[in-house]
User: What shape does this take?
Amino acid sequence: MKQLLILSGKGGTGKTTIASAFIKLSKAKAYADCDVDAPNLHLITEQSSAPKRTDYYGLPKAEINTELCIQCDRCRQNCRFDSISVDKKYKVNPFACEGCGVCQAICPVEAISLKPAVAGELMLHAKEGKVFSTAQLKMGSGTSGMLVTEVKKQMKSATAPTHLAIIDGSPGIGCPVIASLSGADMVLMVAEPSISGIHDMERIINTAAKFGTKTAICINKFDTNIENTKKIEEFCKKQGLAFMGKIPFDAGAIKAINNGQTIVDINCASGIAVKVVFNKTIKLLFEEYPVLHSNDALHI
Amino acid sequence: MKIAVLSGKGGTGKTLVSVNLAAAAKTSTYIDCDIEEPNGHLFFKPENTQEEEITINIPKVDNELCNGCRKCVDFCKFNALAYIKEKLIVFEEVCHSCGGCILFCPEEALTEREKVIGKVQKGTSDQVTVYTGILNTGEASGIPMIKKLLHENTPPSNKLTFIDCPPGSACMVMDSIKDADYCILVAEPTIFGVHNLNMVYELVKLFNKSFGVVLNKCVEGDNPAERFCVEKNIKILSRLPFDSELGILNSNAKIAVRENEKYQALFSSLLEIVQEEVQHETTSHS
Ligand code: SF4
Ligand code: SF4
Ligand code: SF4
Ligand code: SF4
Assistant: This one.
């Protein structure tokens, strides 16, 4: 199975809009949303049934048994994350606690225990041979990288052999992005023609380069700033990055999305442009490995 | 007065709003807490910048003293230590600097050393003091940097401070809004926008913050984000239009209020509304 990961250095570039169009065009049998902090893909991909939900446990949190506590203050003094406070009684702030276990180990009367804590929820939609894996991190749970790994694992374990998986990546450059990169065969960067968009794009390309992942670029809303669009195209040439095409700003896209549709479901300018980007991307993804089967309707 | 600007996701106009409000306020402080992708400095282009490295403490082993008991390895909840070939190895990237291994090593073989995770820059742009935190690529947690940005550089309380928060609703955002007097939530007019807005809405409610919404990129027709605000009885502070002039200024990293009087007026009136809201909150709570 080939994994195509769609990334953007920044949110709001239309990554999910493009991912959903790709899913539609490729008739992908496997796809996932790795933006576990703010998943959106489920809003515009059809799900015919309720998902299978699984609690996701992150690191445990400390809990103080105030009956046993002798108020020696050792736990508070040694917690590096300022998670323990005292207001008559000692207590742990679960949002700040990292579950490191220092307080538990240092407490002289064993008043502290580490309790498993639900940090999010995994959702799996599987029907008619199609698998969609997604998750939602609970507010204030830090470990999104680990949940991203779970989302991908869940997708793989539920998928019958198929040749293509499309993954909507996480925004940013931090640990969730690194988790979504691992195992990806190719990255499609969705860039936005703004100074800050270019800045963020450069950072993410550096990250992808560290993993040695094949990287290609497309520009969304290219006509909102033609000059910056040119800059990105030149940047691609200079860096030897494959350029997949340009998609215009399109009020029709907003309408489609607000109706829960993808941009290729309606007749609109961005939908037409995204098809070109799609064809090129899929071609590049499978270039060295022509494993397409005739019954998989890919529009190449 | 501290005003935090947040949105459920990047790209909604959080930086546009906070940068232009800070510029409209003239004398103010702007703190960019979006440390994974700080963009505010691209707009302000601050001068006279000073830089400070931000470090965390990670363990360092003295192999002469270490006897291989592996107590530290067993303790570490993050699997940041391993004892291989009669040597203790520290995996820096996953160490959370909890200090536990050092505390509990019976041979006192572990000490701390500083590791740089990024830097904080301070500079000025007209009368705006600009703070930027920049986290190195690949670092797991930026919390120490957010703490540094918000708590050690505390400007005088009578001055207006704008905090450009990280996107999302995770722990770094929580740290960014903890001391804010008011929160501005920026939302886009799509169903994605509503989904993201709902997350930060839950967050500010949890923290009991007073807040209002700025609707960004408004176009003709139905605005699901506006409907959400009406349903939940949330104060709409301003409606910024989707206009290509503002779009071009913004995508060229220009500060709209410094380029065009129209936007000067737009953001000044937003600033007034926000200040009134804060005043109102403080009087009604006292
Ligand atoms: S487990 Fe660690 S972070 Fe949590 S309260 Fe104890 S010492 Fe602090
Ligand atoms: S270390 Fe244990 S006994 Fe001491 S204050 Fe903390 S919980 Fe109480
Ligand atoms: S606890 Fe101390 S002595 Fe034991 S393995 Fe770790 S560093 Fe070595
Ligand atoms: S400081 Fe804490 S996280 Fe780092 S190696 Fe030691 S025990 Fe592990």
